[in-house]
Amino acid sequence: MKYFIVPFVLLASCASRPQPQLGLRPAPPPAVEPVDALRYGDVVRVYHVGRYVDPNLSTMHEQHPVYRVEASARWNLHPSGLLSMPILASLTNAAYSPVPTTDQITAELNRQRFITQNVTAEAGRLTESIAQFQQALAANNRIARQNQELRQQLQNALKRLDALEAKSPSNTPPEPKHDESDLLGIH
Fold first, then answer.
1. Residue-range definition of the domain harbouring residue 74
2. pLDDT, tens digit (0-9, with 9 covering 90-100), for 129-158
3. What stretch of H or E contains 6?
4. How many separate domains does the chain show?
């Protein structure tokens, strides 16, 4: 019996305490956005055709639907909702983000503003000069018309004077004929 107790003691001493069991479950799959938000599906049209003979083969088809892919699946590059991806959420549109400012950029912007103001001022001065030239040209044209009218009147007066001198007998010696260039002081 002694021999029975020793193995029993040995067996009792070898017995380990039961370890607590951990309840491990697989993690739930991550929430995936609907595929419609990321990718457009195929556009498939159904065409119902009647009985026909295949032109390439000597076979006849009975009435049946024909499925045709009108547009293949493609990525949705313009999502309407907010994307849950952190990389895409942090991106901003460059048109709406402020311009990075450094001393060099600020100096260049100030220089461009100064040049723009100078160009605008010069354009204003040129516009005023053009208006003055147009006024002077109009006045010149008016004076040229008046000179032409005066010359015409002078020629008519000289013709009448010559006609009157020719009609009237004069006791005085005839005076030399008047030349228009002499009267106008043109030599």
1. 39-80
2. 999 999 999 999 999 999 999 999 999 999
3. helix 2-14
4. 2
